[in-house]
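Reminder to self: tokens first, then the designed residues, so the page reads top to bottom the way the pipeline ran.
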């Protein structure tokens, strides 16, 4: 264990994420001296006294080893370099699971949303996640109830890779009811935390955790969120990092989707309805392009003006003489005859004993 790694593990015990004083010291002096200053109660750092007295970093590291967790720090091959885009990156990451973080998260998407989601939201989150992982993308979420859990389960249902970023210590599966789900995630993916083992989940840590979800990924999708949903905090972090943000629309009468609709209307989020649209938004230009769906193309589409007018004049039942078509279209008889010949070639018109009608099954 290097001094730098030990010191950064110590910071995850001594200081809360995004502590601006610690971040300034870390940038100026490095991790080892920052920890020394905190432990020596340097001026302005007395507030850390209680934590200094209680901290046992060696025990934290032993607890991590016991469950197969590791400490990842900046400069490691496994360090997700996207985290360096944050104004205050995590002091370190406590990581469990076989996923190589830097390479495994290079093509990843955050799928987040409301804890109190509807059946519609849960189904859409699972379908999106399954579609993403089957196309080679990892799904990152927070392991919480609702949309997070649906996204993780959707990825796991098709044997995909998914990552849970926790607001608690890496040895503290939270929520406890999701212990089995998080264990399944660990089989192929990873669980990550920036707080020391044993740390309790707190509101501030959830909010700080959200910035990691936004930073680790190529873009964020909000599946279902009301106007005060914490998932919108993740979306705001993504916007601040200049990462694409997408939102899935819901019924306009549903308050569960009001936050999504607000972000779409304000232009902060792009409307998406499937995995292909998400990948086109967050992927590489020219590589992950998505061909827009279209309806069936009929032989009558794009007809020149004369043929279109003649076809419109023809009846479906019964038949019409050429002169009558000429009267209805105000086209010369020769022009009508030429148009009818082309329509017959296209399978759009039928002649019966010198009279004309529309074909009953237009060619596709």
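Designed residues (364 positions):
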């Amino acid at each position: 264990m290097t001094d730098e790694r030990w010191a950064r593990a110590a910071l995850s015990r001594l200081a809360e994420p995004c502590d601006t004083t610690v971040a300034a010291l870390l940038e100026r002096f490095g991790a080892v001296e920052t920890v020394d200053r905190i432990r020596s109660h340097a001026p302005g750092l007395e507030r850390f006294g209680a934590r200094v007295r209680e901290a046992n970093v060696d025990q934290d590291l032993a607890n991590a080893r016991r469950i197969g967790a590791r400490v990842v720090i900046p400069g490691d091959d496994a360090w997700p370099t996207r985290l360096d885009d944050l104004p205050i990156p995590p002091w370190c990451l406590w990581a469990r699971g076989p996923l190589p973080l830097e390479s495994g998260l290079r093509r990843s998407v955050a799928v987040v949303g409301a804890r109190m989601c509807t059946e519609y939201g849960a189904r859409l989150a699972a379908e999106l996640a399954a579609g993403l992982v089957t196309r080679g993308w990892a799904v990152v979420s927070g392991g919480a109830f609702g949309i997070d859990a649906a996204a993780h389960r959707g990825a796991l249902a098709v044997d995909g890779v998914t990552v849970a970023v926790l607001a608690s210590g890496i040895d503290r599966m939270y929520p406890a009811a999701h212990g089995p789900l998080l264990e399944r995630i660990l089989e192929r993916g990873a669980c990550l935390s920036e707080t020391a083992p044993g740390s309790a989940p707190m509101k501030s840590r959830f909010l700080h955790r959200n910035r990691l979800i936004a930073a680790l990924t190529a873009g964020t999708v909000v599946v279902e969120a009301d106007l005060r949903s914490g998932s919108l905090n993740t979306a705001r972090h993504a916007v601040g990092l200049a990462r694409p943000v997408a939102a899935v629309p819901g019924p306009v009468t549903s308050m569960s989707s009001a936050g999504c609709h607000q972000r779409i209307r304000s232009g902060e989020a792009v409307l998406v309805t499937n995995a292909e649209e998400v990948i086109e938004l967050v992927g590489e230009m020219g590589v992950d392009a998505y061909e827009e769906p279209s309806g069936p193309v009929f032989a009558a589409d794009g007809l020149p003006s004369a043929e279109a007018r003649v076809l419109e004049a023809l009846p479906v039942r019964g038949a019409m003489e050429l002169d009558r078509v000429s009267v209805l279209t105000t086209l010369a008889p020769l022009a009508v005859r030429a148009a009818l010949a082309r329509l017959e070639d296209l399978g759009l018109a039928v002649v019966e004993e010198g009279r004309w009608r529309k074909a009953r099954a237009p060619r596709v």
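The mean pLDDT is 93.
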